[in-house]
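Researcher: Next sequence.
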Amino acid sequence: MINFLLQIQHTERIVSTSAERYLLVYMIGVLLIVTSLVVIFFIVFQKRKNKLLLDKIKQQKAFDEEISRTQTEIQEQTLKNIGWELHDNVGQLLSVASMQLSILGTQVSPDIKENIKETTNIVRESLKEVRSLSKSLNNEVILNIGFEKSITNELDRLKRMKFTSAELHVKGNTIPIENKKHEIIMFRILQEFFSNSVKYSEAKNLKVKLDYENENLCIQASDDGKGFNVETAEKGSGLLNMKSRAALINATFNLTSKIGEGVTLTIDYPLS
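Model: Next structure:
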């Protein structure tokens, strides 16, 4: 009888131990499932959060690009209108003034005829410069004559106006720029650089180099002016315009300068 009771107790202990083990395994299983669900939920939450952040960044970038594109289009239209006004109105007035001076030169006494002739030449040169400027402001003219010819015309105009030399050097075989809007934007960046050189640099010489590589166009413009400290210089609208225009066409923009060593602008534009 005692042995029988001992066997029953032993069996109960075995059953109890097994039940405890099953319970422990069950609890561990439940814990693992809950932990896995928490981890999965956290991963999904992070992915969704990251996706929302990326979408927000993309939307902001698209918005900024659209603003820059709109500003560029407005600026181009404004420049075109100014170019038309210069050519049609100011140019017409200068043409009339030149004709009237020529007629007047035939009617005045010889002692002032030379002064009339000199004034007539000045008016004619002014008319030539106005027409040249109007062409550089009109994007349709730029597209018609081409990127390199537009740069050459602008450098020739600046040379007549201020600089001792203003030259364009081309390296490699010319590769046409497929997106003509990008062509206009790069030309406007160069114009902004030229304008700053005229206003601030006190330079005597300008140089532009176009280096055509297989999939890249490297544009380098430089002057030999007084230069400035890039780190401490105030970032004006001209520099910001150049940077935003370069970003709009996925080009790399860099401006370097040291006091007494002029300014160099570098644009790397992907041709592909």
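Model: Helices lie at 2-105, 110-137, 139-145, 147-161, 180-201, 237-248. The chain is about 70% helix and 15% strand.
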